TrEMBL record:
Highest taxon in the source lineage: Bacteria
Pfam families linked to this entry: NB-ARC, TPR_12
PANTHER family: HTH-TYPE TRANSCRIPTIONAL REGULATOR RV0890C-RELATED, REGULATOR-RELATED
Originating species: Streptomyces purpurascens
Protein name per the record: Tetratricopeptide repeat protein
Record domain NB-ARC: where: 120-277
Chain ranges passing through the membrane: 7-27, 47-68
Length: 918
């Protein structure tokens, strides 16, 4: 993505006030339930007082996200629903499936694997990738999982398992980018911080960079199960030498520096031992010759042996000869299959035919589930049975080795068994594929309605409950945490259901599921998945001719496009949404779309369009009596006014928004509005009021356990303290903020803290240290694509370089900073740079040129009513006149400056001028 224009930045430098202006602009950048996750994308475009970030590039995302620390950050900045982000703030990297009790021998393979790992670790060498290949049913996954459990103590930083669906019937192989998103989420990265975009290759590269950074210097074990190709898994490989990767595949994958371990069928005697152990019969009660033949007939494959033994265990009246007769008959019936498939599929058939009719039907229906793993509630929907009965069926099928148990009381069909179940639909009663998908989609709609009741903000619209939801049993979700946990678990399954429903032309279900998933995907992402979902929904609505639903899908698409900083696409989608809403006279939908359009235009500094859109949205919300909509529109309108340097109008709008947020009990809205008001009051010289607002906001963030926002508030408090002469208090606040940002891996916020600390060093007289810090911040902002941050750092660098005598370097910094600020429309920043530049010229014995700069700064500062820059300009003009025309001249300007400084409480500047006047 190209760099985009950002918005005015405000950097309150030690001697200057530029970044103060925009500290709280961020406060309401995202002001409804759709917006708080967009905070990260918003940050990547904008630069305010504490968060200076503009113009997202994928390289910038990579750089940002690659630095995330091991501690999972809480909800990113913005307006979360209730202050809780997606679950997992304290996740531990432990996701290996349960070790199977049926694991038999493989002593030689295990010894080779463990020995290879031990030798590499003892020599301090990087661990090679170990590829475990073999035919279906041979036990590759069981071997990898068993080895993972054996080696777990050697990898204390975590053990992760990912199914890549390389050969799963009915499912396409997992793309590397999707797998990386899952791994990053499991590793504690909030999904909103995972790179997204339209360029699949660039997104995958960015996610891979973050993943490698996440595991740098860690000792973790990663099992990549069921890989289709080396290309699929290569981006998933950690970069550090301390991680072990085990890959299972039916193919012989070739790559450098890997250990290939082929898993063959069990030796006959081991297969016999496994059969005897699982059959529950004493070995002397079984005819050895018959058991030898049984294991040979199923190819000595562990999966087949387990199924056969389970048949015998569940039929006490059978003997081994009875089982052999049935297996031979099944093999004859399946003779058209290839030898390897026939060997194991015959055992499936034998196990299936031994099930009761109702369990056979339940098993067949599992083959139609579009997702990967399921729980009893999904099973109940598929099988049209109660959850209690579904649980019984699933447990029985697990006992019969026809399904695998996953962590969290979930179940999954082996790929071969899924194919087998799908192939049974033509037999017996069968179950219509479309009806099965309809039932499971209806279940998810009902369950999503329950979850949305916990995560959608007070006063926001909630997707309706389906009419037939009363016939569906939904999981018990008693809290926001329960809802988020359930949504995280089911996200991939719901999206798979949407794809299947779309393929079956069930467009109404596609549209409804997309709407029901929208609140969660807004805050949790990944947003590239959300883009695909809403595109599909919009197309589905076109098929059905439902313009209201089409407007909803387009509006959601526009919101997510905004989160990813794809502004032209966001504007296009939102304008189309407004058109669709107008066609059906949906005023609420139109108001929401206009509100979102206003935010996008605000982010691209199209201020007049932004103000017009928010004003129209506000009028519609007032007609509808929508209080949350009114608060959101007012908050966004206030930010737009401040961006246009209309500070009084900004305070008025933001104060009204604050009152409504308090009326609704919306604590995040309250805190963000308080912080935004604090910035405005700081710019207007009301430092005591600004400090009080920032402290109140900080206390709410503390109550909500939001460390990210706490750090922002600390930076803002630090700026106010510095401007009022409390330099050590400012240093302490910025250091605390930097510690939070560093621990959370928030590079935007950290760069801002470093910049503020550079200003503190400059004010206290250490210009050399100031230059070092400011150059560090400048490099970070440029790397992140933040033009606003770049301008703020250049402004302060110009001052510091002037102090150490680097006049040309200082002027170059001022020139570049001024160009950016004027392009961004930051008039307060422009006045500050002009004052800094005037000061440099004055100290360089160029008072006439200095006075011209101070005159320009005074004109801008008075035009936007920025008192601190007005006082600085007046002081500069007075000193220039004193020097040019002689002592006694410029007194009026100096006394006017003293008056403003005293009102602001800037006593140090007052003392300097009074000494001159005396």
């Amino acid at each position: 993505m190209r760099l985009r224009r950002g918005i005015a930045i405000a950097v309150v430098a030690g001697g200057g006030a530029v970044t103060t202006m925009l500290v709280g602009l961020v406060t309401n950048a995202v002001s409804d339930e759709s917006r708080w996750p967009g905070w990260l994308g918003w940050l990547q475009e904008h630069a305010w007082f504490s968060f200076v970030v503009l113009g997202v590039t994928m390289a910038g995302l990579t750089a940002l996200l690659a630095g995330l620390s091991e501690t999972r950050p809480p909800t990113p900045p913005g307006r979360p629903e209730d202050g809780a982000g997606p679950p997992g703030a304290a996740q531990v990297l432990r996701s290996l499936p349960r070790d199977t009790a049926a694991f038999t021998d493989r002593a030689a393979e295990l010894e080779r694997l463990v020995g290879s790992v031990r030798a590499s670790q003892e020599r301090g060498q990087g661990l090679p990738v170990h590829v475990i290949d073999g035919m279906p049913g041979v036990g590759k996954t069981a071997f990898a999982v068993h080895a993972g459990h054996l080696l777990s103590e050697r990898f204390p930083d975590g053990q992760l398992f990912v199914n890549l669906n390389g050969h799963t019937p009915g499912r396409t192989p997992v793309q590397a980018g999707e797998a990386l998103a899952s791994l990053l989420t499991a590793a504690g990265v909030p999904t909103q911080q995972i790179p997204v975009g339209d360029d699949v290759g660039a997104v995958t590269e960015a996610r891979a960079a973050m993943w490698r950074s996440r595991l740098a210097d860690k000792k973790a074990l990663l099992i990549l199960d069921n890989a289709a190709s080396y290309r699929q898994l290569e981006p998933l490989l950690p970069g550090g030498s301390g991680c072990l990767v085990l890959v299972t595949s039916r193919k012989r994958l070739v790559a450098n520096e890997e250990v290939v371990m082929s898993v063959e069928a069990l030796p006959p005697d081991h297969a016999v031992d496994l059969f005897v152990r699982l059959s529950g019969r004493p070995s002397d009660a079984l005819c050895r010759d018959v058991v030898d033949e049984l294991v040979r007939l199923c190819g000595c494959l562990p999966l087949g042996v387990s199924l056969l033994a389970a048949r015998l265990r569940h039929h006490p009246s059978w003997n081994a000869e009875d089982l052999r007769g049935r297996l031979v008959a099944a093999r004859d019936r399946l003779g058209e299959l290839r030898a390897g498939e026939r060997a194991v599929t015959a055992t499936f058939d034998l196990s299936y035919r031994d099930l009761a009719p109702e369990r056979q039907r339940f098993f067949r229906q599992l083959g139609f589930f579009p997702g990967t793993d399921l729980d009893p509630h999904v099973g109940a929907a598929l099988g049209e049975v109660s959850v209690v009965m579904a649980r019984r069926h699933l447990e029985a099928l697990y006992d019969d080795h026809l399904i695998d148990e996953q962590p969290g009381s979930r179940y999954r069909l082996h790929d071969l068994l899924r194919a087998y179940a799908r192939g049974l639909t033509a037999e017996g009663e069968g179950m219509d594929h479309v009806q099965a998908v309809q039932r499971v989609c209806t279940y998810y709609l009902a369950a999503l309605a329950v979850a949305n009741g916990h995560i959608v903000r007070s006063g926001a619209a909630v997707p309706p409950v389906p009419d037939d939801a009363s016939r569906v049993e939904t999981p018990v979700l008693e809290s926001r945490a329960d809802a988020l946990s359930w949504l995280e678990t089911e996200r991939a399954n719901v999206l798979a259901c949407v794809r299947r429903a779309n393929g079956l032309a069930l467009y109404d279900l596609v549209v409804r599921l997309a709407a029901a998933m929208a609140p969660f995907l807004r805050q949790a992402g990944p947003w590239d998945q959300a883009v695909g979902l809403h595109r599909t929904a919009a197309e589905g609505a076109r098929h059905t001719g439902d313009q209201r639903a089409q407007g909803d899908a387009l509006a959601e698409l526009g919101v997510v496009r905004r989160f990813t900083a794809s502004y032209p696409q966001a504007i296009e989608a939102l304008n189309d949404a407004v058109t669709a809403y107008d066609a059906v006279d949906d005023r609420r939908g139109k108001a929401d779309a206009l509100n979102q359009l206003g935010i996008v235009w605000y982010l691209t500094t199209d201020n007049e369009d932004a103000a017009r859109a928010q004003t129209e949205a506000l009028a519609l919300y007032r007609e509808l009596g929508d209080r949350l909509g009114q608060a959101n529109a007012l908050a966004d309108l206030g930010m737009t006014h401040r961006q246009m340097s209309r500070f009084d109008a900004a305070v008025e709008a933001q104060s009204e928004a604050l009152a409504i947020y308090r009326e609704l009990g919306d604590r995040y809205g309250e805190a963000n509005s308080l912080r935004d008001l604090g910035v405005a009051h700081c710019l207007m010289g009301a430092y005591d009021l600004a400090a009080r607002h920032h402290q109140e906001a900080f206390d709410i963030y503390l109550e909500l356990d939001d460390r990210v926002h706490q750090a922002y508030a600390l930076n803002e408090l630090g700026v106010v303290r510095r401007l009022t002469g409390d330099i050590e208090g400012a240093r302490t606040a910025h250091n605390q903020a930097m510690t939070h940002f560093t621990e959370l891996g928030e590079r935007f916020g950290r760069a801002t803290s470093v910049r503020h600390l550079g200003v503190v060093e400059r004010v206290t007289g250490d210009a050399t240290q100031a230059i070092r810090l400011l150059e560090e911040a400048l490099d970070a902002y440029r790397e992140l694509g933040s033009r606003g941050g770049e301008a703020a750092s250049l402004s302060e660098l110009g001052v510091a370089r002037g102090i150490v005598g680097e006049r040309d370097g200082a002027i170059e910094a001022f020139q570049r900073g001024l160009e950016i600020l004027r392009d961004l429309g930051d008039r307060c920043g422009e006045a500050e740079v002009l004052n800094h530049w005037g000061t440099l010229l004055f100290t360089s014995d160029e008072p006439p040129a200095a006075r011209r700069h101070f005159d320009q700064a005074l004109m801008v500062a008075r035009d936007i009513r920025c008192p601190l820059e007005e006082a600085r300009a007046l002081e500069g003009i007075g000193r220039c006149d004193w020097t040019i025309d002689g002592p006694g001249h410029g007194v009026d300007s100096l006394r006017a400056a003293v008056t403003v400084y005293r009102r602001l409480g800037v006593s140090a500047s007052v003392d300097d001028i009074e000494r001159l006047l005396v």
